[in-house]
Amino acid sequence: MAIPVIDLSKLNGEEREKTLSEIARACEEWGFFQLVNHGIPLELLNKVKKLSSDCYKTEREEAFKTSNPVKLLNELVQKNSGEKLENVDWEDVFTLLDHNQNEWPSNTSGLKETMGEYREEVRKLASKMMEVMDENLGLPKGYIKKAFNEGMEDGEETAFFGTKVSHYPPCPHPELVNGLRAHTDAGGVVLLFQDDEYDGLQVLKDGEWIDVQPLPNAIVINTGDQIEVLSNGRYKSAWHRVLAREEGNRRSIASFYNPSYKAAIGPAAVAEEEGSEKKYPKFVFGDYMDVYANQKFMPKEPRFLAVKSL
């Protein structure tokens, strides 16, 4: 069993209806799918790959060797207790936001310009995917994006758009630690440019962990908790995790198009009618994030109940 692979270029041709249906089924049955022919230039993707790897080697690798996960794993191995590290991830990560560009890694020539260009391309792809979801859910065009951008003025988006650049370095004891613990994503639409070569990302499907197979230059799409709420449960946010590996430094670049922290999120009217009743409360996304921060790796249903409803 493999997660769906969808050719996005067919959305513009005579196979449009079939492609829309494939995306709808992937959202309903998986919450994860891979896009090929998505429109992001191959030359740009190749630059992103190279510069991200260069950045890790020159600006991140040495610090990871003395990081908390490494120290804790060494202590655990010395204890030889048979336990596993449950509250830490074998991951090096930095986050790129529009307003923190002065904090972006600065010693890798061309990284800022390339990642800025890449983020613009991914932001456009996120908009396209939200419009596809609008259409498949029977919502007005632009509904999801508008819901995420509450308070938008003069076309200036208020939605949160962040890019998390992760590396999962070789681990001497991958059986004792997670690359990234199992979780669902809190926000809206996630667009992942993952490693071409090294696997490790898995999604939970019908009680079984399925590999998200490396596919060169594909973009992996997954839906977050807020899409589950807006669709009144028709689209589910999927549990996923990353396994630590003994060999290979796995690269993962995930971009998150999330609601503004002030946005009010609840089941859309059309989604309600189909389900006949609201299955989720309406809440302010920032309040949800306060709950999620403490419950990210715990069952998701209690999060919806714990957040203050409007």
From TrEMBL:
Enzyme class: oxidoreductase
The Fe2OG dioxygenase domain, residue ranges: 155-259
Pfam families xref list: 2OG-FeII_Oxy, DIOX_N
Protein name: aminocyclopropanecarboxylate oxidase
Keywords noted in UniProt: Dioxygenase, Ethylene biosynthesis, Iron, Metal-binding, Oxidoreductase, Vitamin C
Catalyzed reactions per annotation: 1-aminocyclopropane-1-carboxylate + L-ascorbate + O2 = ethene + L-dehydroascorbate + hydrogen cyanide + CO2 + 2 H2O
Annotated family: Belongs to the iron/ascorbate-dependent oxidoreductase family.
Entries under InterPro entries matching the protein: DIOX_N (IPR026992), IPNS-like_FE2OG_OXY (IPR044861), Oxoglu/Fe-dep_dioxygenase_dom (IPR005123), Plant_2OG-oxidoreductases (IPR050295)
Pathway annotation: Alkene biosynthesis; ethylene biosynthesis via S-adenosyl-L-methionine; ethylene from S-adenosyl-L-methionine: step 2/2
Known EC number: 1.14.17.4
Keyword Flavoprotein: no
GO BP terms, alphabetized: ethylene biosynthetic process
GO MF annotation terms: 1-aminocyclopropane-1-carboxylate oxidase activity; dioxygenase activity; L-ascorbic acid binding; metal ion binding
